[in-house]
Amino acid sequence: MEAFLISTGIVALAEMGDKTQLLSLVLAARFRKPWPIVLGILVATLVNHGLAGAVGAWVTTFLGPQWLRWILGGSFLAMAVWMLIPDKLDDDETPSAPRFGIFGTTVVAFFLAEMGDKTQIATVMLAAQYQAWFAVVAGTTLGMMLANAPVVWLGDRLTRRVPIRLVHLVSAAIFAVLGLIALFAPA
């Protein structure tokens, strides 16, 4: 349960102001059909984070506990720093036409935008740390949905009320604490 709850919280916070959250806003403004967009985000996230969680679980089979501890600790500290750098949506990440329909366009655009993103990397690290693939993927997926579904339905009204900088600072602090725990907690 701990892996699920921590994964949900970390990813929900990390997603605030992220490029995939901005993509959710762009898709909502462009297509104005929330259900296919939200379902597309869900499918893309399940596939993307399922693969990322598998990579995280696989890494633990090759690394001993001491190496894993240092890599995870350093990775969480790097994520803390990365959280302080705001994301911007690149123009080429916005879908040009709904060639695959709204759902298909959302799945493809969201999956590609999530590649190498903070939340995908966090999923790899969390799966490696907790060695609980299902709980981590379920948690990170829920975190993504908690951060993105309201954006699709409420749009920019929500983004004006959420102090993104504060959310980034809280997220950075959480990642820093997790990094320090991974590095210095008794084995």
UniProtKB/TrEMBL annotation:
Instruction: Decide whether keyword Iron is in the record.
Output: no
Name-wise, this protein is GDT1 family protein
| UniProt-listed InterPro entries | GDT1-like (IPR001727)
Please report which protein family the annotation says this sequence is part of.
Belongs to the GDT1 family.
Determine if Cell division is one of this entry's keywords.
no
Record keywords: Membrane, Transmembrane, Transmembrane helix
What is the species listed in this Swiss-Prot or TrEMBL entry? Curvibacter cyanobacteriorum
Q: Where in the cell is it found?
A: Membrane
Q: How does it sit in the membrane?
A: Multi-pass membrane protein
Q: Which domain of life is it from?
A: Bacteria
Q: Where are the transmembrane segments?
A: 37-61, 67-85, 97-113, 133-154, 166-185
